[in-house]
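Reminder to self: keep the SMILES exactly as supplied, no canonicalising. Ligand is pyridoxal-5'-phosphate.
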Amino acid sequence: MDELTELLHRAAAAAAHYRTTLPDTPVAPRADVAALRPAFGDAMPKQPSPPGDVVDELIQAAEGGLMGTAGPRFFGFVIGGSLPAATAADVLTAGWDQCAFNGVLAPAAIAAEACAGSWLKDLLGIPATASAGFVTGGQEANTLGLLAARHHVLTEAGWDVERDGLLGAPAVRVVAGVERHATIDRSLRLLGFGTSLLEEVDADTNGAIDLASLEQVLGAGSAGPLIVCLQAGNVNTGACDDLRAATELVHRHGGWVHVDGAFGLWAAANPATAHLVDGLELADSWACDGHKWLNIGYDSGFAFCSRPEAHAMAASYRAAYLTGSGGDPSGGDLTLQSSRRARGFAVWAALRELGNDGIADLVERCCLLARRFADTLAAGGAEVVNDVVLNQVLVGFGDDARTEKVIEAVQRDGTCWLGGTTWRGRRLMRISVSNYATTEDDVDRSAAAILAATAR
Ligand SMILES: *Cc1c(COP(=O)(O)O)cnc(C)c1O
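Structure tokens returned for the bound complex:
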């Protein structure tokens, strides 16, 4: 074997060994950053090193410092693993090293995005005519949705925001729920709106938008450019806004609806949960993640827009040296990147591996397992605080201090990993079931470890 072939085999074998032993390894890393830092070296090396030595050194340096997020008993944040075909596709993506800016530079990458984009729209119930940008994640997808919105509402008001910026522009109203994800605020900062203009709408008891409050907020302000952010999948409770009623209301006020559905949009792909996101097709833009519930490796997200021309006008740029510019918007035209990773290969592979039925099953299984978690913990004396509508469970163990202690003890124990959150002023344990590989046995073992920690 030549050196590169041998090296790639070795890297793939090490990755495979890591993944196959993951279910039997403590989920939390053994070492923290400070402990790991010396293994990565001190001064910048002056001399070159043989690539094989470098790879061996890297594997050794990372030893003990990898969080088992890809494994079946990681329930922190909203994470998800990475499906076998998607993982292998990412290995190919690294090997092929395509620059997916456009179809001239990377025809296969753009073709894969085109195919996966229509499959995604079909699965999620987004209109087939919508654009699909393959982005880094929910943050970029939210930024793009709001960027397209900014373009559209200001164009309607007779203002060219791409040329003239926001100084002197007609005032834009931006409305979002109090339970919005924090990335919405960062997107508003990036877009030059700032966060203080945000008009907040109350939430109901499970964290979905309160329609009466939305109606009141919309009615209280003046007519004119209006953008409203809705949410599918509250990051704490899993609650989804009533997208149909809320969107109809916003449209009556002439506004643009952006839906942040980083993980919650996947409810649409499962017949048993699709009612939670009923009406999503009425919205104007949507943000969704691949690296969460679809179980694709990092980084992977999608920015959809019902008006492809608004999406491309707001996001793309033209330059004389760019062959291929001027065709249908694709690749870099629909993202905030120019040179970019060919993310479509892994997405295509994940969708191809699971098919419609496999994805419905993945979503349904995670929801049933979340329910099982909640029931087992409640039977063991814990307090389940949210209405478990999707894959998220919030659990309290008495007061805040005690709940924190239980979370720390569970993280130390290593059977599973989950974190804490603050919801309605209380510290709570947050459980997210998002991994394709999680089984009933994983949930039972994890629930037992949590209940054992409460006993200590
Ligand atoms: C995770 C999440 C985001 C941010 O997505 P990233 O992929 O981390 O950038 C935004 N909104 C919601 C509702 C999320 O759950």
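Points to follow up:
The two ends are 55 Å apart (CA to CA).
Residues 90-349 form a domain with the Aspartate Aminotransferase; domain 2 fold (CATH 3.40.640.10).
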